[in-house]
């Protein structure tokens, strides 16, 4: 079975890996000049937070998403399972109650417990929610690890290659072009997300921290070497564009309110991309002739790609 995967974002690489692990002959092509160059996946925070996401997502996200943590732990040793800490400023403490009502699998934590979990937040927050079973990863390292594993398995991975128009030379095509597939999937819409990457040695965090706020909730995900990803806006727009001044100010203000050391942090990168989303905000696998479209990962790329990649491989091998 010869399979062509178009797109080396998280959808394409997870699908390619599931297929290659089951013995298919797989090739992956991507029009970007190198891994991540044109992929929304490169901008992601890398939170694997199935139970926090219940706040705004369908129950399916938690049901399928919690399996992703083991999937990533098996395939990317950099996956960190230390939970998610959700906090709010004293004036926004009602947001915590609201969040707690809509989510599951957490414990309430007080100021001492917050300080035990994250010593650098000592004395800054009085109340929070701790989702002990959640995890996070660095998407760029995770995608790099998947690509390396694919090469080990004999998969051909080529960049700077546009999807061909015909597919007669392969048995199946898996279309994982993300938002670029909108021409074939007219109900796909874009949800712009903006993020920034900062560096500071003045603060360390062990896990993802979410700051609740009535208008501008944000999260901070720690990475290696003093890097922190701060994200992310959610704007109904298909314009990749750049980060607006307003979003930059709001994200930075939010981070500064979590800890003033973020005020002294070095800005490494501003990033923006478009999350591909279907009307129900759930991913879908659609078959059209010999092509399988795997798309609509919305804000759950790393969380839901493993479960849907498994379904793609099932569809290929059982038809
Ligand atoms: C700021 C931000 C934060 C996020 N945080 C999280 C998070 O914490 N956790 C989480 O799970 N998800 C998160 N997401 C969502 C996640 O990033 C997306 O759901 C996911 O990246 C979508 O992956 P994809 O593989 O479908 O698309 P993409 O990553 O965009 O990959 C598509 C690939 O297809 C290639 N391509 C397109 N057209 C062609 C063509 N014609 N020929 C060849 N190649 C082509 C592109 O070059 C690209 O590499 C976040 C998103 C944003 C923007």
Could you write a compact summary of the structure shown?
The protein is α/β, with parallel strands linked by helices. 29% of the residues lie in helices and 27% in strands. It is elongated and about 65 Å long.
Structural class: alpha/beta
CATH top level assignment of the largest domain: Alpha Beta
Q: Determine the number of helices (DSSP H or I, runs of at least 4 residues).
A: 7
Q: Which series of helices and strands comes N to C?
A: EHEEHEHEHEEHEEEEEEEHEEEH
Mean pLDDT: 96
Strand content: 25-35%
- Poorly predicted sequence stretches spanning 5 or more consecutive residues: none
- How many structural domains are formed by the residues? 2
Named CATH architecture of the largest domain: 3-Layer(bba) Sandwich
What's the alpha carbon Rg, rounded to whole Å? 20 Å
**CATH H-level name of the largest domain... which superfamily?**
FAD/NAD(P)-binding domain
Shape: elongated
N→C terminal distance? 12 Å
Bound molecules: flavin-adenine dinucleotide
What is CATH's topology name of the largest domain?
Answer: FAD/NAD(P)-binding domain
Biggest sheet overview: 9 strands, mixed
Proportion in helices: 25-40%
- Please provide the count of β strands: 17
Organism: Microvirga vignae
InterPro entries: FAD-dep_OxRdtase, FAD/NAD-bd_sf, Gly_oxidase_ThiO
Pathway: Cofactor biosynthesis; thiamine diphosphate biosynthesis
GO molecular function: flavin adenine dinucleotide binding; oxidoreductase activity
């Amino acid at each position: 079975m010869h399979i062509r995967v178009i797109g080396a974002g998280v959808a394409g690489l997870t699908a390619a890996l599931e297929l290659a692990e089951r013995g298919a002959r797989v090739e992956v092509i991507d029009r970007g000049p190198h891994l991540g160059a044109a992929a929304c996946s490169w901008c992601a925070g890398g939170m694997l937070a199935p139970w926090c996401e219940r706040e705004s997502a369908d129950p399916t996200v938690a049901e399928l998403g919690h399996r992703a943590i083991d999937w990533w732990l098996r395939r990317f040793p950099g996956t960190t399972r230390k939970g998610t800490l959700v906090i709010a400023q004293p004036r926004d403490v009602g947001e915590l109650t609201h969040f707690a009502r809509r989510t599951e699998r957490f414990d309430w934590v007080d100021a001492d417990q917050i300080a035990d979990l994250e010593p650098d937040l000592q004395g800054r927050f009085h109340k929070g929610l701790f989702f002990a079973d959640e995890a996070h990863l660095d998407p760029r390292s995770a995608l790099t690890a998947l690509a390396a594993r694919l090469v080990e398995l004999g998969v051909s991975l080529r960049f700077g290659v546009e999807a061909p128009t015909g597919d007669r030379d392969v048995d199946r095509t898996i279309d994982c072009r993300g938002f670029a597939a909108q021409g074939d999937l007219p109900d796909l819409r874009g949800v712009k997300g903006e993020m920034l990457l900062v560096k500071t040695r003045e603060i360390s965090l062990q896990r993802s921290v979410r700051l609740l706020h009535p208008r501008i909730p944000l999260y901070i995900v720690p990475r290696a070497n003093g890097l922190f990803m701060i994200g992310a806006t959610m704007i109904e727009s298909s314009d990749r564009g750049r980060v607006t001044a307003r979003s930059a100010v709001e994200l930075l203000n939010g981070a500064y309110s979590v800890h003033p050391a973020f005020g002294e942090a070095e800005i490494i990168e501003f990033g923006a991309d478009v999350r591909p989303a279907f009307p129900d905000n759930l991913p879908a696998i659609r078959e059209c002739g010999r092509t399988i479209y795997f798309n609509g990962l919305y804000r759950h790329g790393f969380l839901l790609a493993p479960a849907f990649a498994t379904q793609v491989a099932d569809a290929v091998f059982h038809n």
